[in-house]
Amino acid sequence: MTIAQNTAVSITQASEMNASVGDYFALLKPRVMSLVIFSGFAGLWVAPGFSDMNWFLSFVAMLCLAINAGAAGAINMWYDRDIDAIMNRTKTRPLPMGKMHPDEALSFGIVLSVLSVLTMGVALNWVAAGLLAFANLFYVVVYTMWLKRKTPQNIVIGGAAGAFPPMIGWAAVTGDITLTSIALFAIIFIWTPPHFWALSLFANEDYKRAKVPMLPVTHGEHHTKIQMIIYTIILLPLSITPYFLGTSGLLYGVAAFALSGFFLFTAIRVLKDKTLKSAKLMFGYSVFYLFAIFLALMIDQIKI
Q: Which residue of 75, 81, 144, 209 has the lowest C-beta tally within 10 Å?
């Protein structure tokens, strides 16, 4: 079945079915949202003045960040519904399954995007709201609609969208952008390519069928593995930057060095492994890595 046929089937099915609350929730990509919320909260936590911030405003900031990330995910699913229908990893999403009409998903995403940005601006400040809007548009327009289907650098450039949450959290408190918030952005930006390339190694057949030019599809496994090592090497010193900027202490510095060192080790194992086992393990560790490094950053700020 072709992509066009899959899309037609999905729309026909959608006209005969009512979407559930669970289907709308699935549009928000909750697993991705959890990383967004956590890294965004880390930026909020370490920002100067957080201890004096009203707890309700902190909650509103994180709610806006979560909703906006989910809204971008919903628009992404609307645009990618044709290729999602033929990829094993995504074919059970609400739109390929015909559980709702595409227009519903698009409207849902747009409304939530606008509301979350306006709420952030009115309740917190317009610097944070501007970053929130830019991250949303970058993910939807630059990554989803432009880069994803055109270049193997899709996740390298487009991955910037997922790196904004700590900057947004920081700006929600301070109303500005500093070297520290840029450093937190850079950590996620450099982490993103090896994270997604590990996934694309064992999802390679999916991307081939959907004609998505991920690096393993266009340049082969070996080249991809080399690139993963290069990025994890860059990430190692970069991850320690908050310590050298004076934002964090020795606890974070040691934790970041150890976590990033092991990330590099997993990339080396992927290069040596002829099977997909190491790639799957690296992908799992990469998710843990991001949670762990930002958790270390927050723990380091606790004054005992």
A: 209
Buried b (16+ CB within 10 A) or exposed e, 62-85: bebbbbbbbbbbbbbbbbbbbbbb
Amino acid at 153: Q
Together in a domain, 240 and 170: no
Whether 243 contacts 260, CB under 8 Å:
no
Cβ pair 139, 168 in contact under 8 A = no
| Residues across the chain | 304
Distances (CA, A) of 283 to 28, 126, 228, 245, 260: 21, 35, 11, 29, 14
**How many whole angstroms separate alpha carbon 260 and alpha carbon 301?**
20
For residue 192, give the nearest of 263, 248, 247, 134 by alpha carbon. 263
Residues of the chain with pLDDT under 50: 1-16
User: Domain containing 77 — which CATH number?
Assistant: 1.10.357.140
Q: What is the pLDDT of residue 90?
A: 87
Same domain for 135 and 30: yes
pLDDT score at 126: 97
pLDDT, residue 8, reads 45
Model-level pTM? 0.90
1 three-class SS? coil
